[in-house]
Amino acid sequence: MVSSKTVMIRFATNYFFDLGIYFPKFSIVAFYHNLVPVTHPEMRILLHALTGITVSFALITFFCDTFWCGPDPSIDWTGDHESCTVFTSMLLMRLNWALNFISEVLNVIYPIPLLKGLKMHSRRKKIVLTIIFGLGIITIAVSIGRFVTMLYVSNDISIYIWATAEICISVIVVALTALRPLLRKIINMISTTVPSSDDPSGN
Predict the structure, then answer these.
(1) Which pTM value belongs to this model?
(2) CA distance 200 to 203
């Protein structure tokens, strides 16, 4: 028999993952707001729609996690634990996963028209962008893996491994977008200090 304190802790942990997974998305959306120029009004309109969808899905997740078992959230840990708990509800897991998956896919495919229109002569910039959006695709694949695991495995450690991998990759994607200027500066510093191979004197 699971104690009420354990159920309360489980109830609270839902917020850390179910809502926490949206914060990297908010950061990516903010990055898009700086990336998309005002000379692309159609993309700006789509960006506002993407922002609204992401925020709406996060709010739906919050309210579902809070009031899934009734208008009084405390019923989740004070009532009959076998009848309804947010932590073990498969229907809620599927709903939260669907919202997260849809917003993740939209965040990844949104900049594709911009990437097609960018003229990048630097191979380094192309590699960086490829890595960033490649990790976004990996995040989607990991999310699918987590969902399949949830369907066929009940309360197994593998579910938490998939969930940890998903949120960690999301954080890495956001970190790479923020670290691009720093990485560029470091590469430029290295290139200016290393002697050019075309200089026979090594100076």
Answers:
(1) 0.79
(2) 8
Q: What angle do CA 169, 55, 52 make, to 5 degrees?
A: 115
Q: Give the three-class secondary structure for 75.
A: helix
What is the maximum span of the chain, computed from C-alpha positions, in angstroms? 81
Query: Rounded to 5 degrees, what are φ and ψ at 153?
Result: -125, 130
Q: Which helix (H) or strand (E) holds 120?
A: none
Q: What is the pLDDT of residues 17-53, one digit of tens each?
A: 899 999 999 998 998 888 787 888 888 999 999 999 9
Helices (H), the chain: 4-18, 22-35, 41-67, 75-78, 90-109, 112-117, 123-152, 157-193
CA distances for 7 relative to 4, 82, 129, 152, 158, angstroms: 5, 11, 43, 23, 21
In single-letter form, the type of residue at position 136 comes to: G
Whether residue 69 contacts residue 76, with contact meaning beta carbons closer than 8 Å, is answered with: yes
